[in-house]
Design a protein that fits this description.
Layout lengths: L2 E5 L5 H8 L8 E5 L5 H8 L4 E3 L21 E3 L10 H6 L3 E3 L6 H17 L1 H9 L17 E5 L3 H10 L6 E5 L6 H7 L2 E2 L2 H7 L2 E4 L13 H6 L5 E4 L8 H9 L5 E4 L21 E3 L8 H19 L10
Parallel strand pairs: 1-2, 1-3, 3-4, 4-5, 6-7, 6-9, 7-8, 9-10, 10-11, 11-12
Length: 325
């Protein structure tokens, strides 16, 4: 009997099927495109699906109600690292496995993080806008060097480690990190990082980059008090989860020059709206990007190939990889 794959991703069904069939010996299956379906139609199709490919735009949410009538569903494969739109607890209770594509965009996010740090230190945004307007502010841009600075990493998972590895050639005075789980001494020595408490990350770092997951503990970890603890000339980079940072407090800290600036790639509401307090900040030391750190062409290819290969495993009766439950 043919299996059914429901694709909530905005990809043509024939493309999804083609990619899954690249894995040898996959049994017969059909792909149903559900990205444009209504909530009720999605729920009805879930009842017949064996595997679901999630929506990487996060618009098609998977709730307890969505999966309430499932009969054959074995895996929800999310084609991204984030899976905040999926009720994982409800899936676990129903015996449905959920997998993401952890690691597929590590290089992309790590490179974006360092690019943000360099652009902020070099004052590149102001240099560009000033020069483009016909000014010649050679002595007013005042770029700084990364060499000799202290970089604080919050969350030393795959991406945090990739950032640390790429920072080594820049000759920083220290790379310090905080994580709820401390790495072994061999890993710390290999990466050239030092473990320290969060209070020291805040008070000692010239640049702080966030790579931590969103939990009850990390939510709003960068609040008004944390921002007040940072160096006045420090920069904050968030390429992780928007909810790690109190956006209103950050906007106020930059406006009042309590910190030098920030690079923000994630927002509490996406697509970002004009109500977001960060959009009202007039500062050339605030770099905003539309959640693009992990969506390079190279990462997108790794993500979809990793996701469809995992779907093929399940269709073949094998165990899926990169499970989150």
């Amino acid at each position: 009997m043919s299996k059914t794959v429901l694709s909530l991703a905005p990809l043509p069904a024939e493309v999804v099927k083609f990619l899954i069939k690249q894995v040898p010996d996959v049994p017969d299956f059909d792909v149903i495109s559900g990205n444009e379906m209504s909530e009720e139609a999605v729920k009805e199709t879930f009842s017949e699906a064996d595997v679901v490919l999630g929506d990487y735009t996060f618009k098609q949410k998977i709730t307890a109600d969505t999966i309430s009538s499932t009969r054959n569903l074995k895996l929800i494969q999310q084609p991204s690292v984030g899976y905040q739109h999926i009720d994982v607890d409800a899936c676990t209770a129903k015996g449905i496995k959920v997998a993401n594509t952890a690691g597929a965009n590590t290089i992309s996010v790590a490179e974006h993080t360092i690019a943000c740090g360099l652009c902020l230190l070099k004052n590149m945004f102001h240099a560009h806008t000033s020069t483009k307007s016909g000014k010649w502010e050679q002595m007013n841009i005042k770029p700084a060097e990364l060499k000799g600075k202290v970089w604080g990493i919050v969350g030393l998972g795959r991406i945090g480690q990739a950032v640390a590895e790429r920072l080594k050639p820049f000759g920083l005075s220290r790379i310090i990190y905080y994580d709820s789980y401390r790495q072994g001494l061999s890993v710390e020595q290999e990466l050239g990082v030092e473990y320290t408490e969060m209070t020291n990350i805040l008070s000692q770092s010239d640049i702080i980059s966030l790579h931590a997951p969103l939990t009850d503990v990390t939510r709003n970890m960068i609040n008004e008090d944390a921002l007040n603890s940072m160096k006045p000339g420090a920069y904050l980079i968030n390429v992780a989860r928007a909810e790690l940072v109190d956006e209103k407090a950050l906007a106020e800290a930059i406006r009042r020059v309590k910190i030098a600036g920030a690079g923000i790639d994630v927002f509490s509401e996406e697509p970002v709206t004009m109500n977001n307090p960060l959009l009202a900040v007039e500062s050339e030391k605030l770099l905003l990007s539309p959640h693009v750190a992990g969506v390079t062409d190279e990462a997108a290819g790794r993500i979809i190939n990793m996701a469809t290969a995992n779907i093929a495993r399940v269709l073949k009766g094998e165990k899926p990889e990169s499970l989150v439950n």
